[in-house]
Design brief:
Arc Repressor Mutant, subunit A; mainly alpha; 11 helices; Tetracycline Repressor, domain 2
C-alpha cells in the first residue's frame, strides 16, 4: 500500500505540473530548441533558482516532457487495443483500433507529437530513461503480430527478405525470433511502425495539403496497405 501523500508532496506535484504546462506552451510558441528554465520562470513570475529545485537544467525538463508524451501515446494505443480485444476483435481490427488511437492522440496533442517525432532538438541527447516509454507503441505492435501468428491470422509472406538481418542485434534480442516463414517479421513490423508515424507526421506537418481529400480515410488505407506487408489483414477499410 502506498504511503499517503503529504500536503508538501501535493504542492510539489502541482508545481511540477505547472512548470511542464508552461514549457509546453513555450515549445509550441518558440520551438523546443529555444526552451530554457529562465524563460519558463519568467512566464511563471518566479525566480529561476526556484525552478532549479525541480529540474536541474533544460534537458532534464525536456526529458520529463518527452517521457510524458511517450507514455500518453503508448497508453492510448494500449487502451484501444485492450478495448478491441475485449470486444472480440481479430488482430487486424485490433491493430487498426490502436493506430486510430495513436492518430487521435496526435491530433489532440500536436506539440507533444512534434516534440517526440519532429525535428531533433539541437544539443539534446535523450537519456535511457526515455527508452521504455518510447517502446510502448512497438510493444503493442509486437504483441499483436505475435497473437496473429499464434492464432493463424498472420499470412506468410510471398517471399522472405533476402540477405542478412536488417535490424540491429539489440532489436533482435528484444523479441523472440519468429519461426519460418516469418523469420523476417521484425523487419516487416518496422515498416508498419514507420508507416504509422510517417503518415501521421505528413498529416500534422501539412505535407498532405492539396494532395489527400480525406485524411481519416487515407490513414485507414495506409494502415491496411502497410499491414499487408507483414501478413496482417485489416478488415473494414
Amino acid at each position: 500500500m502506498n504511503a499517503p501523500r503529504t500536503a508538501r508532496d501535493r504542492a510539489r506535484a502541482e508545481l511540477v505540473r505547472e512548470i511542464k504546462d508552461v514549457a509546453r506552451r513555450l515549445i509550441e510558441r518558440d520551438g523546443a530548441a529555444a526552451l530554457s528554465l529562465r524563460e519558463v520562470s519568467r512566464e511563471m513570475g518566479m525566480g529561476a533558482s526556484t525552478l532549479y529545485r525541480y529540474f536541474r537544467n533544460r534537458d532534464e525538463l525536456l526529458t520529463a516532457l518527452i517521457i510524458d508524451a511517450f507514455n500518453q501515446l503508448g497508453g492510448a494505443a494500449e487502451d484501444a487495443d485492450a478495448d478491441a480485444r475485449r470486444a472480440g476483435a481479430g488482430s487486424g481490427a485490433r491493430w487498426l483500433a490502436a493506430c486510430r488511437a495513436v492518430r487521435g492522440w496526435a491530433l489532440e496533442h500536436r506539440r507533444e507529437f512534434a516534440l517526440i517525432y519532429g525535428s531533433p532538438v539541437s544539443g539534446y541527447a535523450a537519456p535511457s530513461d526515455t527508452i521504455g516509454p518510447a517502446t510502448r507503441i512497438t510493444g503493442v505492435l509486437a504483441a499483436l503480430l505475435a497473437a496473429a501468428a499464434a492464432s493463424g491470422e498472420l499470412q506468410p509472406p510471398a517471399s522472405v527478405l533476402p540477405g542478412p538481418r536488417l535490424v540491429t542485434a539489440e532489436v533482435l534480442a528484444s523479441y523472440d525470433a519468429p519461426p519460418p516463414p516469418y523469420e523476417d517479421l521484425i523487419e516487416r513490423a518496422l515498416v508498419l511502425w514507420i508507416c504509422l508515424i510517417g503518415t501521421i507526421s505528413f498529416e500534422l506537418f501539412g505535407h498532405l495539403h492539396n494532395t489527400v481529400t480525406d485524411y481519416a480515410a487515407y490513414f485507414d488505407a495506409a494502415v491496411k496497405i502497410s499491414a499487408q506487408c507483414a501478413g496482417l489483414d485489416v478488415p473494414g477499410t
